[in-house]
Amino acid sequence: MGELLRNWRQRRRLTQFDLAEMAEVSTRHVSFIETGRSLPSRALLLRLADRLDVPLRERNQLMTAAGLAPMYAERSLDDPALREAHAAIEMVLYGHEPHPALAVDRHWNLIMHNRAVAPLLAGIPDFLLARPSNVLRVSLHPEGLAPRIINLGEWRAHLLHRLRHLADTTRDPFLSTLYDELAAYPCDDPYDESELSASAHVAVPFRVRSEFGDLAFISTITVFGTPLEVTLSELAIESFFPADAATAQAMRAFGASLEPAQFAGH
């Protein structure tokens, strides 16, 4: 447990003194915990994990390593206990139509999407869409969306930057492996990540060729604000908004062809 705690402190680039001040304990106490000379109470361990912004899944690991019972449940999204959360996700996704929106897990595997996403995935090979379908892989794979993305270099740099940051902060080996895979995909439009900060855009756009013509979107990420369950804490909804008038008009035309959505949140 002490080694795990020290690793998280170092990832956050904090000294023992920094963490002690944040948790309102002595530096000596933090040192004793990290070296195994002292075991913290459940309350103190939770406070330390909170100050270090440790994800709920990893807080359970800290608890187990300290000989304590895990505190945060992990359920399937289909579990009856998550019925209201499931309905809320559907309301966000379908309420965002006619614009695309999708929900992903901690590894960026697709959980759910609204009907505006399907046309963008038309023609993508089954091996990329088979569950668990990874949206980052679908985006950058040479047989996926990559050939259709107009600003592939810029969008690729943006996605790789996000993925590397997430891999660095979580130290999740899956994300590190995924980063290496995606970074190795060919790209005829190389784009240095440092150029993103010098871009003239207010946000990195996603420009893609589709059956509706050339579309441009900017996106937002939505997460549950106060999750106390592992699955919910790791779930994110990415919503895409038109970045120009032509895209807005095309999506309105698509929306006019949709029947009213039927989902659990109704």
TrEMBL record:
Which CDD domains does UniProt cross-reference here?
HTH_XRE (cd00093)
Species this protein is from: Lysobacter antibioticus
Q: Top-down, what is the taxonomic lineage of the species of origin?
A: Bacteria, Pseudomonadati, Pseudomonadota, Gammaproteobacteria, Lysobacterales
Family matches, as Gene3D superfamilies: 3.30.450.180, lambda repressor-like DNA-binding domains (1.10.260.40)
All copies of the HTH cro/C1-type domain together span: 5-59
Quote the protein name from its UniProt record.
Helix-turn-helix family protein
InterPro entries, per this entry? Cro/C1-type_HTH, Lambda_DNA-bd_dom_sf, MLTR_LBD
Q: GO MF annotations for this entry?
A: DNA binding
Question: What SMART domains would the database entry show?
Answer: HTH_XRE (SM00530)
